[in-house]
């Protein structure tokens, strides 16, 4: 790659990051600066330009930032601790504070669903119960469930499966008292892989449900 091309990519990446920072609001809650809709997506796109993998970074950065309509900063310490103490860590459920201000609960398929199915496994329910408690106790919080699959099989089958799995999570949260209006779901099929679909390990990582919690301006 020529030096001029590298410099152009770097400049574009920095420009995207600057745009994301420019979208940041001045208000804050819990010590976190608020970010407007789209800021997380812009950060992801900027990182993609810098590391040379724009599709993956954009997918990571655009969890809910582009659709939430105004995420505000939030102190996730208590909620994160409760979810982890519910057994998430032992199940391989990763709880991460994201660049766009949301909290991602990444649920791998081995503890959530059997192959080709969308019925929740019993061992995952205590984790979802802790998420439900947080959403009920803090009415300013919302959640979005996003289902993903690997690339094995047809696009139609994978898309349907990802939607059904995302809906299974939100339906359970509703059954635990979370208002349906506070929940959204989406299936993305195999379109946002986080690992290589040519390996068994990569396909296992791609089969997942990402549950994003975020706070809205009251």
State the major sheet.
6 strands, mixed
Radius of gyration: 18 Å
Query: Helix-strand pattern, N to C?
Result: HEEHHEHEEHEHEHE
Q: Work out the count of structural domains.
A: 2
Per CATH, the superfamily of the largest domain is OmpA-like domain
Number of strands: 8
The CATH architecture term of the largest domain is 2-Layer Sandwich
Q: Report, as a whole number of angstroms, the end-to-end distance.
A: 49 Å
What fold name goes in the CATH topology slot of the largest domain?
60s Ribosomal Protein L30, Chain: A
Class based on secondary structure composition and strand pairing: alpha+beta
Q: What is the count of DSSP helices, taking H or I runs of 4+ residues?
A: 7
Mean pLDDT: 78
Overall geometry comes to globular
Report low-confidence residues grouped into runs of 5 or more: 1-8, 10-61
- Beta percentage is 15-25%
Please write the CATH class name of the largest domain: Alpha Beta
Approximate helicity band: 40-55%
